[in-house]
TrEMBL record:
Coiled coil: none annotated. The keyword Signal applies. InterPro entries: DinB-like, DinB/YfiT-like. The lineage of its organism: Bacteria, Pseudomonadati, Acidobacteriota, Terriglobia, Terriglobales. Residues 1-21 form the signal peptide. It holds the Pfam family DinB_2. It comes from Occallatibacter riparius. Transmembrane segments: none annotated. This is DinB family protein. Keywords: Signal. Residues 52-165 form the DinB-like domain.
Length: 192
């Protein structure tokens, strides 16, 4: 009898936990109104955020560093990224480019970090004003290319990703861990 009573008490204690576990998982959040634009924006913001963090992390004395004499310096890469962001996002929206020639006119870390942050903010506003329907509109860029507005954003994201790879190499050559590798776990040691 004592065993049956213990089993009953245990069952009564376990019942609420079992019922809670069986409750349906929360419904997934509703899809955004413009899922293609939202997806593109999310990827761009992740990559451009890494560029900004890298620009902030690299010491000022390394802004003139070149991996080889025939390539851009680290600072020029950051300026180039700012220029490209402004250009692509202006093309996508049909607005005038808000800032040009940053790569050729800015050299200090403070100026370049501010310029790339401003360019990323400008692109953020461009995304805020975009919809999937508007993004599907075909526009002409570079004089002869007819592409969808959202494809211009994709070109910018690809360009940002390409140059983030350069930035990572420059940081690694200077012994600095790039932002996207900071929270990565240490590699497991090889078995002996």
């Amino acid at each position: 009898m004592k065993c049956k009573f213990s089993a009953l008490v245990l069952g009564l204690i376990a019942l609420p936990a079992a019922l809670l576990a069986q409750q349906a998982a929360p419904a997934p959040s509703a899809a955004p109104a413009n899922p293609i634009t939202a997806s593109e924006r999310g990827l761009y913001m992740y990559l451009s955020g890494a560029v900004v963090r890298a620009a902030e992390k690299m010491p000022e004395e390394n802004y003139s560093f070149k991996a080889s004499p025939d390539v851009r310096s680290f600072g020029q890469l950051i300026g180039h990224e700012a220029d490209a962001n402004n250009m692509f996002c202006a093309l996508a929206t049909g607005e005038p480019n808000p800032a040009k020639n940053i790569e050729k006119t800015k050299t200090s870390k403070a100026d370049l970090v501010a310029a790339v942050k401003d360019a990323v903010a400008y692109c953020g506003k461009a995304f805020d004003g975009m919809t999937d329907a508007k993004g599907a509109e075909i526009i002409k860029i570079f004089g002869s290319m007819n592409i969808a507005r959202l494809t211009v954003f994709s070109l910018n994201t690809a360009h940002t990703d390409e140059h983030y790879g350069n930035i990572v190499t420059y940081m690694r050559l200077k012994g600095i861990v790039p932002p996207t590798s900071e929270s990565q776990p240490a590699p497991a040691s090889a078995p002996k």
